[in-house]
Amino acid sequence: MNITGEGTLPSAFDVTGLAVTALSEAASAVALLAQRHGAESPEITVNRDLASLWFAGSFTPLGWELPPVWDAIAGDYRCLDGWIRLHTNAPHHRAAVLKVLGLEGDVSREEVMAAVVLWEGQALEDAVVAANGCAALLRSPQEWREHPQGRAVASEPLIGWGDPRAVLALQDGEASAQRPLAGVRVLDLTRIIAGPVATRFLAFYGAEVLRIDPPCWDEPSLEAELTIGKRCARLDLKSAAGLVELHELLAGADIFIHGYRADALDALGLSDAELAARYPSLINVALNAYGWSGQWANRRGFDSLVQMSCGIAYAGRAYFAQGGGLEDLSELKPHPLPVQALDHATGYLCAAAAVTAWGERLEGTVRNARLSLARTAVELMGSEPSDPDAPAPHVDGSLLLAEDTVWGPGQRLPSAVQITGVVSETDIPAQGLGWAEPHWL
User: Fold this and answer.
1) Run of H or E residues at 310
2) Are 194 and 347 in contact (CB under 8 A)?
3) Is the pLDDT of residue 363 over 90?
4) Cα–Cα–Cα angle for 31, 34, 40, nearest 5°?
5) Predicted confidence (pLDDT) per residue in 17-26, tens digit
6) Distances (CA, A) of 293 to 159, 226, 297, 354
7) Coiled coil where (predicted)?
8) Element of type H or E holding 213
9) Residue 230: beta bridge partners?
């Protein structure tokens, strides 16, 4: 493994180190698969600068702008006894927050601030979660370690592998040393951001990725970033017809990657046990926010919320306040990571798990895998702070790749990973959600 570059993201934890490690794991899995197809000891090179920049975002529009990443009232708010983060990007999550706060309509941020400051943090978090919304109280690392969910997550493996089951071995006819995932069908039921990162990585090495979204779901600020390499279709899984079509897709898939909560899949008749019984050869890779055991296993969550819950945003506040002469940090806003590193790192680890499992599938063994943002956070929080004197990540502008999208022209970062003899590319440009039919090619 060769590591090049000097760039480092400033953080209370080694975010760039996490980026390099996660990408290295995914690349190593691809290199092993390439060896199976005749590659001779491929060398892997990971660039620190590019790894950091991919964690921030790989695409820059030229002559046009991406929509705002955050809803107008999403963010951190002072409550009676601390800070809380409200995640309101999805319309139904926004509606849940406003209902709890007794607000309605197109409210201002100031109105939300005035309502939140009347609540104790724990009571508000509980109320929003109970209303099927998304919120997270700011906790210290110590508070998270002592929290029942924090203890549960800490006891989980970084990648939780299921029990193996024997199936017929495969002849991987379409794949080659140059394109080790060619011919592999990946059914993608993931959104924001970890799962789409994983399937984007698989697509660049040859996998046929079919992403399925609900009829009315949109991610306008992320579609240029995360739909490249994929055919994107829509299905209403709450309808009988939509569920029938999903089962047809599952029957033809090799790898199923999803970010649905376990209880949501159970309600659709898609539990791990049911999928294994109906599709014994299918590799099932699952992602969630807060881990797969404990009382929060089915809690809705996102990277920014997990950072609040587990103490990352608390530690960041203290780290960046050093030298400021402040003794009481309670009035300072939480300070998250410079990028959504839990999402991106978990995505690349998910890709590594999927590729590893595919290699085993070719030999006649199927294993499922589970990952979570909260467990990735445990890994990150065991690292040291970044070097404050390290240079910021950068890339030579001449290396940026021109790309035409349906929204307009832009530039994409070159790959942060190089594997000798292996081609990383796609001929499917970013086209947004819902443009394709829900069928395999």
Assistant:
1) helix 303-310
2) yes
3) yes
4) 85
5) 999 999 999 9
6) 13, 29, 5, 21
7) none
8) strand 208-213
9) 209
